[in-house]
Specification:
6% of the residues lie in helices and 63% in strands. The chain is mainly beta. It has a domain of 91 residues: Histone H3 K4-specific methyltransferase SET7/9 N-terminal domain (Single Sheet), CATH 2.20.110.
Length: 327
Amino acid sequence: MRKVKYILLLSILSTFVYSQDTTIVYYNHEWEEIDNKEYASFYRKSFTDSSGAHAVYDYFISGKIQMTGTYKTKKEKKQSGLFTYYYENGQQQSHGRYSEGLKVGKWTQWYENGRVKSEGEYAKGELNGSWKYWHENGEVRSSGSYTEGKREGEWQFWFDNGNPEAGGRYDDYQRQGKWMYYYENGQKSREGYYNKDLVVGEWTYWFESGERKAAGVFNEGERTGTWSFWHKNGTLNSNETYLKGELTSAIGYHPNGNLNYEGNYQNGIRHGKWVFSNASGRIYLEGTFEKGKHEGEWVRYFPAGEMKLLYKKGRLQNKRLGGIVNR
């Protein structure tokens, strides 16, 4: 009994000694030190313990704890040992260990509702090894590995409804090889390849309903060759030709398969002769574009005849119908 009293006395005396060294500092919302408590968002109580480490307790101005941890010494302000951060509602925000001011070992983060947000390892302040992330509703958000702070190897991502969002491999934090992406309903949205985070090779795209939407080839991040696009009913929408990422020509089709339009591009805008047809396949308009603007003679076809339109730099100059000129 005497031994217990002695220990209790030592504890009380120690607390008294530490309290003589306790300092209180006030901070604004950006954690800048200020003198006026009235404008403070946080305050810090700290003291040096028996080991020489500087214990720190940060509080919201409401008096609720915001952080607990220790610095190596009062003068050398490097985080050392376990740190715990809190939301103002009292829920833990994150917890883990520092060494020489750098995060090390296992760290865990939580949402304000108490659900785990992320969990994994640090090495010398950098994300390292396996990590897992969760949505606020508890569903897994992503999982994979880091090497020296960079994503490495296979990674998987999910929507908050549990369906897959994307999956593939990283090499030095760059997407590499085959990747697949999905709509939130679980249907695949696109699939293809990367080389050092640039899209390459064949890529295929789908509508959210599952029908094929587009397909073509990338070369170092740029579209090349012929790309095909489809209507939702499965019929061909258009074929577009690309050279080093630049659209050079296009042929479009109506959902019934008949020609819709055909023409060329220069620097990504319409240039040269273009032809437009209606859903029945009959041509109703043809003429020439120059740098995206109507130029020269255009012909508009009607069941009873035709109308010739004369353009200059995109502006209509006159139109001729049945031999009569209207200006």
